[in-house]
Write the structure tokens for this entry.
Amino acid sequence: MESTNSVSQQLSNSINNIVSKQREFFLTNETKSIDFRLKQLKKLKQVVVKYQDELYDALWKDLHKCKEETFLTEITIVLNEINDHIKNIKKWARPEKVKTPVYLMPSKSYVTYEPFGVALIIAPWNYPFNLMFTPLVGAISSGCCAVLKPSPYSQNTSDVMQKMIDETFDKNYITMVQGHREVNQALLAQKFDFIFYTGSPDMGRVVMEAASKNLTPLVLELGGKSPCIVDKNANIDFAARRIVWGKTINAGQTCVAPDYLMVHHDVKDELIKKMIYYVEKFYGDDMQKSHCFCRIINDKAYQRLTSYLDEGKIIYGGRCDKDERYIQFTLLEINVAKSQSHKVTKCCPQKSYDSETLQPCDPMTLRPCDPNIMSSEIFGPILPVIEFDNINKVSEFIANRPKPLALYYFGDDEGAEDILRTTTSGGVCLNDTILHVANEHLPFGGVGESGMGKYHSKESFLAFSNKRAVLKSSNRIDFAMKYPPYDKLEMIKKLM
């Protein structure tokens, strides 16, 4: 026990030293120079280009992610983000003039943007490079120092990123710390000026609790059950192709992947037929042999995902290989109980949904009760299918659940407007899936349990910056009416 405590204390001291050194460097004000920030962004771009091949190899080893997918979903997004900040940082950092009320004259008012200070960035394993380096761009652009903590589950990629950071930056400015839970705990015990966390909602609560002890501002990029709705007037061919792509990229291990599919009864059979066609067109008759289809990150995740396969009727897929941690893209029909007068009269052996009311029912108690697969984010290539007859009930179904990170609707403009008006989500794609994340000019983030705060492009710069209000009064003129005994109240009222 004494030895364990000693190791823990050594870890705590080491991390405390890292944070202290970065705070000392930040207080030199060197990072506040725009020229300094531009220089660091350009260095970051150079090292990303230099290590592309090593990143390809690492992500293949960690996730069986092919070179093409890595280029599109990891490297390109980071490079676009860097280029955007290099192009716009001078404009974003410029003081912003605002109006000054007449009764505060003669004064000038403006907003300046200053870095928070020393930031902690904790990244997940599913897009380990993208989700570490994209917020890092925001930290550099705003003038922060940063401590980076990658996931140990994507170890090969973490090791490459460690080399990149060590080669490019002074550790008193930007450094990376690797490790497991004990490292997370030691980091969160420190007083940071800002925390950026991407990961699960459960861990997000832990991070938020730690931040609250020091009233540290933070951004939480979490997950959620992102619904995908296909209405009866949708372009079924486009819908099928785009849903399959959005759900199979990274084997569904994407925070904004369609988490469940709600399809109108009239087009359900056609949609499923088309989806099967595109799965086989993309990956061949045997997905396991495709170099484009990723693997599940670890045994724990594999076991969790395969347990879902018993919670509905498999209408396509279901093949698994434990040794490879392979799970075939699977369409899992959540059984629908037909009803009379909007009441469930008969239930299937498995938990089911009434097709009109979309209310779940437990076959034993007839109480509302979601199956496990509908209670938590899937984060894998399994897509539950729920049939509906009434589009109005779809909005109710979504609204009665935690606010999702993303929402996808396939249908006409009128239906899209109704869905936007009656639901809330972090982001939306109309007649497509997940592509809103690829547009660096759109803010990305969740709402409610799916997260708080936004980033990408200017939003990243703003996330790591304190908006400082400045009012500059004249040294030549002063109005006596603002001072006691306030005998000019009526005049003041007129000015206000």
Summary: The two ends are 68 Å apart (CA to CA). The first helix runs from residue 2 to 26. The longest strand covers residues 107-115.
